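Continuing from the previous page...

OK, I double-checked the sequence for 3-oxoacid CoA-transferase subunit B against my notes and this is the correct one:
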Amino acid sequence: MKDIKGLIAERAAEELQDGNIVNLGIGIPTLVVEHLPKDVSVYMHTENGLLGVGPSPTENEIDQDLVNAGKLPVTEEIGSSFFSSDESFAMIRGGHIDVAILGALQVDEKGRVANWSVPGQAILGVGGAMDLLVGAKRIIITMNHSTRNGESKIVDTCTLPLTAERSIDMIITELAVFTLTKDGLVLKELMPGVTLEEVKAKTAANFIIELN
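Thanks. Re-ran it with the corrected sequence; updated structure tokens here:
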């Protein structure tokens, strides 16, 4: 049986198409590169300056100078390119990232994301999330459905500081897949073994049911 994070990452990988330029956020999103369909070729981008991020390295392949934005070791694909951080952010802000797959602390009924700050906890900064939420053409959120305390992370209104006003396109959790339309959040899929009643019980936001 797949672990929860792997299940979410694999489902997110199914959304990618040939030729996409994709930025992966910290946490679950970094696992997406391990689950790419074999018939799909994409270009993984990291905001610290690499286009062509490959799968996680084996212990013998680790290069301490080759890391992603989350400081995790990565590999490089054949044909990859390196550039400065300011050029990388220019790509994001210029609308050249096709898909950004990000984690989140909360997502609300309007599709707004809070994913950078928890009151009372020390933080390093907003990182690239704010720029990606504004600049990427499509935003997919991958996260656990609930907090460690069992509270829903899909809420009516975010109580944590918003990262941006821009609405996301899709949410993927270990329980379900939601999309966002002009009418609000839409439940499109249930994950294997999950019931509609379970999703209703664990989701604090209102949503429309349109199961495939």
